[in-house]
Specification:
Number of strands: 5
Strand order of the largest sheet: 2-4-3
Structural class: mainly alpha
GO cellular component, one term: membrane
Number of domains: 1
Strand content: 5-15%
Keywords: Hydrolase, Metal-binding, Metalloprotease, Protease, Signal, Zinc
InterPro entries: Mito/Outer_Membr_Metalloprot, Peptidase_M48
Shape: elongated
GO molecular function, one term: metalloendopeptidase activity
Largest sheet: 3 strands, mixed
Cofactor: Zn(2+)
Radius of gyration: 19 Å
């Protein structure tokens, strides 16, 4: 089970930064707002405070009894490749980690806020726990199949490892789209424009629609953001 947990962390930490979850419309009537490419301050502290506050609010509203005390930190390793990911510390507190090269790769506060909101959404949607369950189920099924076909202990162990990977990745694309949808809402409510933020994908290599790939095609992700933004009253 420790191996399964490690595989889950590796799968989720690769986040660069089924159908998506239903769009949540705002409670009040929203007047459509035109998208203006305003120069948002590229200040990590300013953005993290705004997004962190909104992420905590959304987390408390959408979960029951979960830890919503987000920490947003910068990886001290200056050589670490561009990456942003959500994890949990030893006390179960959600932590969003940005590498310095990831921060440098964003062009404005909207892009930084969008990536930050996306990572916060992973925790709110319970993706680590859900992915862990999928990995455990995959390991059990593959291990049982290996045993039924006469596999020895080594073959069963190898099958369990493969099953954990397959299980963890089975719904990873759906998880990314769910995080994009809720991340759009968090970004908007934090005072940033997700339709500007989503342009970050213009510079991210498109993973395509690979079988058991960890991320969906960029076009599909942009579509989810655009649909959610329309529900919030944002227009191109």
């Amino acid at each position: 089970m420790r191996l399964i947990a490690l595989l889950v962390v590796l799968v989720l930490s690769a986040c660069d930064v089924a159908p998506p979850a239903p769009v949540v419309a705002p409670a009040q009537t929203v007047t459509p707002v035109a998208v203006n490419a305003r120069p948002a301050p590229k200040n990590f502290g300013t953005v993290s405070r705004a997004v962190g506050a909104q992420a905590r609010s959304e987390c408390r509203r959408r979960t029951s009894g979960g830890n919503c005390d987000f920490r947003i930190v910068i990886d001290p390793d200056k050589r670490a490749p561009a990456n942003a990911y959500q994890t949990l510390d030893k006390q179960g507190r959600p932590v969003i980690v940005f590498t310095q090269s990831m921060i440098a790769s964003t062009r404005n506060g909207d892009e930084l806020a969008f990536v930050m909101g996306h990572e916060a959404a992973h925790h709110i949607r319970g993706h680590i726990a859900r992915q862990s369950q999928n990995a455990a189920a995959g390991a059990i099924i593959f291990g049982q199949l290996a045993g039924l076909t006469g596999g020895n202990a080594a073959a069963i162990d190898a099958a369990q490892q493969l099953g954990a990977v397959v299980g963890a990745r089975s719904y990873s694309k759906e998880f990314e789209l769910e995080a994009d949808q809720l991340g759009t809402i968090i970004t908007y409510k934090a005072g940033y424009n997700p339709l500007i933020g989503v342009r970050f994908f213009d510079r991210v290599p498109d993973p395509g629609d690979r079988f058991l790939g960890s991320h969906p095609p960029n076009a599909q992700r942009v579509q989810v953001v655009n649909q959610t933004a329309r529900q919030l009253g944002l227009v191109q």
